[in-house]
Amino acid sequence: MLDEMINLQNAIIPACAVVTPDTPLLQALMAMNQSNKQQCLLSEAPNLVENSTLPSHSPGCVLVMENEELVGILTERDTVKLAVKGENLSQTTVKEVMVKPVITLNHEEFTDVFVAYNMMRRFQIRHLPILNQQKKVLGLVTLTSLRQVLNYHHFLRFRQVSEVMTRHVMTVYPFTPVREVAQILAQYNISCIVVVVEQEGLLYPVGIVTERDILQLQALELTLQNLTAETVMSFPLFSVKSIETLSTAQQILQKHKIRRLAVVGEQGELQGIITESNLVQVLDPLELYGILEILERKVMQLEECRIILLTKQDLELAKALENNEFSLYYQPQADLKTREIVGAEALIRWISPQKGNISPAEFIPIAENTGLIIPLGKWVLRTACTEAVAWKNAGLPPIEIAINISAQQLEDENFVLDVRSILDQTGLEPQRLKLELTESVLVHNINLTLEKFKQLQELGIEIAIDDFGTGYASLSYIQNFLFDILKIDRCFIKNITQNNKNSAIVSAIIRLARQLNFKVIAEGVETQLEQDFLAQQGCDFIQGYFISPPLPFEEFCEFYWDYSKLK
């Protein structure tokens, strides 16, 4: 029954990054880095891989082929060793450093998830090429792809993180040179190092440097000696407590599309790390088969209840939109240099005649699940643009308006046309409109997102990444998307003057934004000390209760004039 639920073909990632033994190493690294952006790049060996479609996630390697035969493999871990040796990447060829022979699995033998997993564990490999009967490569199997098709978090809810986590974790400080980080990765044959700050004898995780980060630096031909861990680390490092279940850990990994979590104590101090490998190795096939039948019956019951509930909520939301029960509030944004109000974020509110004030955290997920987020999003966009024009007509300067956009809205084929149409109908200048998206929105469809970004920015609209730092920021992520604004999440601003961890993260984000010519907005600013710290670090704009809570349309105008007098 378990086999019936699992489509093994979905575990095979099409191997789109292919090079020959004589390919220059730098070109191979660029090919590997390009595949991390979900773009198929074949170097000097076109059409050697069958069924080449875009992978659901990056395989983290390139295959080496000669005369249509697989002769080697080059992985992210190999790139770390190259970084330590200081190889001349342009004058070194792939055949000098590739791993050979390659461990493979015939497609007809890939009859079960655990066949591949046990083989990878036995040979201590993370990439397993799958061959057809003609010994041609069909694709790759990785731990990540196995986890995705297995979807086994139901089976992990009775096990704790503390049972399987890795307790001995290599750490470095933010100022550690990247070359030294690469040396540690190579010396201990590990995939990551946690970047920490020390406070009162305890280590607190602030980021992580992985093999992939080293690869990207090499592909960009950056000198490792001149960089520190702080400037290249991915942050923040998502965490889980040791007493939580493995199911919780697995859900966090899957939600944010990451492969590692820090394990922390009650005070947030580092206790260990948990990876996909830790999760997969606890699975017992016999246990899975035994539990599955019980779970199937329960899932069917829950799905029936869910359909009934969503139908009811769908009707309530649609009626609320029809009856004009929604309104917009606006939270002012201030320029830290001029101390002037230069913008506002539009925030939706629902006041139900029957239930009173309903939090957006309650009705937005329902709107997304039922598809009502599309008409609701259009209403927000049209209303905000209309009221922004009304402010200008009332004598206010051309204040910029920021609007949150969901993944479904961005994926809607008419989204850009709708935005252009609403701007034309309301008369709002495109330069005054800012569209805010969370980091999680970006990973839904990278190519589509890039195209939508381009079309919107050609109109003059700026793109802001909301809640920056709560998703999974990395070099490839920053490299892929052309942003205009980064918004630092309020969780990093709170107690920033007392919390060394938060202050280090915020300072790093601002420095990164400066180097990449992004503007920075800090959310959730509530005190003078927080404002002063952000101004000292070079932050551009702030919003939060220190300036003002969100205000309805009429009160925003009054606030603006009162604030201008106090400035």
From TrEMBL:
User: Which Pfam families does UniProt cross-reference here?
Assistant: CBS, EAL
Annotated ranges, domain CBS: 98-156, 165-224, 233-294
Query: What Gene3D superfamilies does the database record attribute to this sequence?
Result: CBS-domain (3.10.580.10), EAL domain (3.20.20.450)
* Residues in coiled coil: none
Chain ranges of the EAL domain? 310-564
> Which GO MF terms does the UniProt record name?
cyclic-guanylate-specific phosphodiesterase activity
- Record keywords: CBS domain
Question: PANTHER family attached here?
Answer: CYCLIC DI-GMP PHOSPHODIESTERASE PDEF, SIGNALING PROTEIN YKOW
For this entry, the protein name equals Uncharacterized protein
